[in-house]
Amino acid sequence: MKNRKTLLKKFGQAVRRLRRSLGLSQEEFAMVAGLDRSYVGAIERGEQNPSLWTIARLANALDVTVSELVGDLNSR
Predict the structure, then answer these.
(1) Any residues with CB less than 8 A from the CB of 8 and at least 6 apart, and which?
(2) Between vectors from CA 59 to CA 20 and to CA 2, what angle results, nearest 5°?
């Protein structure tokens, strides 16, 4: 298992990559997900450890499953 900081960074990068692929700004994405824009930014930078509920909201807003969103986090 990767350390916490690395895992959060990798998760944030996945969220950012998927958000950008949808052509959404952080503000637009946050509105769709029902989250604050600054919180979304902190997640994308790996500064926040989102709850499972928040991860599900992010996945829904990105139109992916939770497993698709977190699927490659443990890859080496």
Answers:
(1) 46, 47, 48, 49
(2) 90
Q: How far apart are the first and last CA of the chain?
A: 9
Cα 24 off chain centre by: 13
> Which residues, in sequence order, are CB contacts of 33 under 8 Å at separation 6+?
40, 57, 58, 60, 61
**Over residues 23-35, mean pLDDT:** 97
Q: What is the pLDDT of residues 39-56, one digit of tens each?
A: 999 999 999 999 999 999
pTM to 2 decimal places = 0.90
Residue 37 has which token pair?
């824009």
Please enumerate, as own/partner, the contacts of 63-66 that have beta carbons within 8 Å and a separation of 24 or more: 63/22, 64/18
Distance CA 61, CA 8 (A): 19
